[in-house]
Design a protein that fits this description.
With 291 residues, the protein is an alpha/beta fold. It has 2 domains: 96 residues, Alpha-Beta Plaits (2-Layer Sandwich), CATH 3.30.70; 154 residues, Rossmann fold (3-Layer(aba) Sandwich), CATH 3.40.50.150. Helices cover 29% and strands 33% of the residues. The chain is built from 9 helices and 15 strands. Strands 11-10-9-12-13-15-14 form a 7-stranded mixed β-sheet, sandwiched between helices. Strands 3-2-4-1-5 form a 5-stranded antiparallel β-sheet. It has a 3-stranded mixed β-sheet with strand order 6-7-8.
Length: 291
């Protein structure tokens, strides 16, 4: 499957606004690059790009037509719209770029994420073999890293689990390797379901993980619910998630910016005793116990 990539050659003043708008339009990824060179810069939430000449690069599913995106950009920015370049990116090209910089990573004391081209660093550790792809979640982002550290630091052996917004399946696989009895992995993207099942098989935990889209999810009460998505959907799912978790069961929420934490905490407090458990790079991890 191919993807549409849009590159806008702009300046420091417009780069942040364009980046935000590409995300609003449904970009799968938005990166900022120094104009004329290929140095990737990932700003922290709320930061402004450093360069006067900045390339804003957005990656889109081809089902969202390129002409529609260009038309919306022209309407939004009118005469201020900078020079635009479009191209088609194949999956193989996208994955190869990430593999160049993807190395074994440790989370907590036991968990390791290992690319398939590497041998385990710690033979006695809990090693998850995972290559980056278009399904979100390889451990490189703070929101995923905090979830992995939380899983590593808690005894979840013997518990049942839901991973809502499973992406690559990284959290579901980590939970399975840490001893949960079952994981129900759920995602709105069929590609994420395929990625989760394939990664579960390559890690030898396919018998512990079921994966499906929300419409096929057979709701059962579980001991642990993991949701690494975004603040707005987390808020909308608060009551629904409360119906999935046993009394005294645990909930772990990620994908939340510092300034969004209070609103998410308020949304969940009718059903959970909530707290901020971790923070990294402007993101927070919220956890709770079902009342």
């Amino acid at each position: 499957m191919a993807w549409n990539q849009i590159t806008l050659f702009t300046n420091q003043t417009l780069a942040e606004k364009i980046s935000d708008y590409l995300n609003e339009l449904g970009a799968l990824a938005v990166t900022l690059q120094e104009g004329g060179e290929d140095k990737v810069f990932e700003p922290l939430p709320g930061e402004t790009p450093l360069w006067d000449n900045t390339q804003v690069v957005g990656l889109f599913d081809q089902e969202l037509g390129i002409n529609l995106i260009l038309g919306l950009l022209e309407t939004k920015f009118a005469a201020a719209l900078p020079t635009v370049k479009t191209e088609v990116i194949e999956d193989q090209d996208w994955e190869r770029v990430w593999l160049n910089d993807f190395k074994p990573m440790q989370f907590g004391q036991r968990l390791w994420i290992i690319p398939s081209t590497f041998e385990p660093v710690d033979a006695d550790g809990i090693n998850i073999f995972l290559d980056p792809g278009l399904a979100f979640g390889t451990g490189t982002h703070a929101t995923t890293a905090m979830c992995l550290r939380w899983l590593d630091g808690h005894d979840i052996s013997g518990k049942s689990c839901v991973d809502y917004g499973c992406g690559s399946g990284i959290l579901a696989i980590a939970a399975a390797k840490l001893g949960v009895t079952t994981v129900e992995a759920v995602d709105i993207d069929p590609q994420a379901i395929d990625a989760t099942l394939a990664n579960a098989t390559s890690n030898g935990v396919e018998n512990y993980i079921k994966a499906c889209i929300p419409d096929q999810f057979d709701v059962k009460l579980v001991d642990l619910l993991l949701a690494n998505i975004l603040a707005k959907p987390l808020i909308s799912f608060a009551k629904q998630f409360s119906e999935y978790v046993h009394p005294n069961g645990l909930i772990v929420l990620s994908g939340i910016l510092d300034e969004q934490a209070k609103e998410v905490l308020i949304a969940y407090e009718p059903w959970f005793d909530m707290k901020v458990s971790d923070s990294q790079d402007g993101w927070v991890l919220l956890t709770g116990v079902r009342k």
